[in-house]
Amino acid sequence: MKYIAVMIMGVLLITISYLTFRYESSLLIGQFLTLFALYLFLAFQKKEFSLNEIITFGILFRLLLLLLTPNLSEDVYRFLWDGKLWWEGIDAYAFLPSEIAKENILKSRVIYSTQFTQLLQHLSTIKSIDFCYWRNT
Fold first, then answer.
1. Contact, 108 vs 114, CB < 8 A?
2. Distance between CA atoms of 68 and 20, rounded to whole angstroms?
3. Average pLDDT for residues 74-102, to the nearest whole number?
4. Which UniProt key words apply to this protein (predicted)?
5. Which residues contact residue 38 at a Cβ distance below 8 angstroms, ignoring those fewer than 6 apart?
6. Which of 75, 79, 89, 99 could form a disulfide with 95 if both were Cys (CB 3.0 to 4.6 A apart)?
7. How far apart are CA 111 and CA 135, in angstroms?
8. Cβ-based neighbours of 64, under 8 Å, separated by 6 or more
């Protein structure tokens, strides 16, 4: 019975993480309540689990979520955007993202080897595309 509960928890984790969207509130609440009920069920049977089983289940649950793209929150994209701005030396709250995109304030700070840089310069003259941009810091 305990292994069936653990398998149901794994299936619920997968469905919450990969198949449920943030606007499906009632479904999310039901899934989380079911997960919590299974957790309570397993917590009262903790003497039936060995330490190795608990560690194995913990690792397996984490592996299920390893390649997950966050779908319940868009905050991760804001964090990535703020990190890119911070890396460029721009205050994240000084401009709107549309202003940064419109005025092309954000530039890439990639340092290449000299041969690769020469190749990019040559390609930019052929295609008239600015592959290279240097910013003196």
1. no
2. 13
3. 78
4. Membrane, Transmembrane, Transmembrane helix
5. 5, 8, 9, 12
6. 99
7. 11
8. 10, 13, 14, 17
Rg (CA), the chain: 24
Q: Which two tokens stand for residue 113?
A: 């080897």
Per-residue pLDDT band for 59 (boundaries 50, 70, 90) equals: very high
Cα–Cα dist 14/18, whole Å:
6
Q: pTM of the predicted model, to two decimals? A: 0.53
